[in-house]
Specification:
Layout lengths: L2 E9 L6 E9 L20 H4 L2 E3 L6 E3 L4 E5 L11 H10 L27 E2 L5 H9 L6 H15 L20 H16 L6 H10 L3 H10 L6 H12 L10
Helix pairs in contact: 3-4, 4-5, 5-6, 6-7, 6-8, 7-8
The structure holds zinc ion.
The site of zinc ion (ZN) has 8 residues, from loops.
Length: about 250
């Protein structure tokens, strides 16, 4: 069963507003619902949890989860203690007050100098493809790891018109990007692989296959140690041998 935990409170790195970041308590999915594609897209998983990039709904800027300062975990709200008429009289007569239980202050209080606006925290949202492009073309240079994450996302989004849902309809009717933009992005991702800044041989072979460089793709797949993801390698190699460069559903 998939259950959400209390969200983490983070600060938007741009506007410093308090945001909620969803957390999972438990996660499960049926293997039969799991569809994986040759470009790494899967249908399992919850994007708001798995996305390394989020968007702030206040300033609309995308940000990396890792860059957001973590303030703490939201505590479940406790119902206010009932102080009834008789309880008050009893306290007055006996002079005894109900013992307060010592516990950690809830996050709404000003601990660690945090302003008391946690209650106004808003749910962070999933970035749009425009946000991913903003991150790629932003003024802050990306590390090779982050550049590969962004380019992989753009590559996968650019394949959506080739992806057929289980009901037979495509994920998108028309390509999201021009062929040339998609090709340049894929070449840039390949370049990260060739400079050994990314080290995932199957992905490199799949990029080459989608660039119609079938023999190079097959050669890489042959060189991977025998036991390593043999089923995926076998399927991608078969598509390469068939001179097929389109994204494919894995079995
Ligand atoms: Zn913000």
């Amino acid at each position: 069963m998939t259950k959400f935990a209390q969200p983490t409170i983070i600060l938007c790195p741009t506007c410093n507003w308090h945001l909620l970041q969803s957390q999972l308590m438990s996660f499960s999915f049926r293997q039969s619902d799991h569809n994986g594609w040759t470009d790494g897209v899967t249908t399992s998983g919850i994007p708001i949890i798995t996305s390394p990039l989020l968007q702030c709904p206040l300033c609309h800027n995308p940000f990396w989860k890792k860059d957001a300062r973590v303030i703490g975990q939201l505590q479940p709200e406790e119902p206010p203690a009932e102080i009834g008429f008789f309880a008050t009289i009893l306290e007055t007569v006996t002079g005894k007050k109900k013992k307060k239980v010592d516990r950690d202050p809830p996050i709404g209080f000003n601990w660690l100098g945090v302003p008391n606006n946690v209650h106004n925290a808003v749910q962070s949202t999933l970035p749009t493809i425009g946000d991913w492009l903003t991150i790629l073309n932003g003024s802050v240079p990306l590390t090779p790891e982050r550049e590969s994450i962004v380019r992989r996302k753009i590559w996968q989004k650019g394949n959506d018109h080739q992806r057929i849902r289980s009901d037979g309809t495509p994920c998108r009717k028309t390509p999201l990007f021009s062929d040339e933009f998609s090709r340049q992005n894929l070449l840039a991702l390949l370049d990260l692989h060739e400079r050994n800044l990314v080290n995932e041989s199957i992905e490199k072979a799949e990029i080459l296959r989608q660039l119609s460089r079938f023999d190079e793709a097959s050669k890489i797949l042959k060189m991977i140690p025998h036991e390593d993801q043999i089923s995926i390698r076998f399927q991608i190699r078969k598509f390469a041998d068939n001179r097929d460069s389109t994204v494919q559903l894995l079995e």
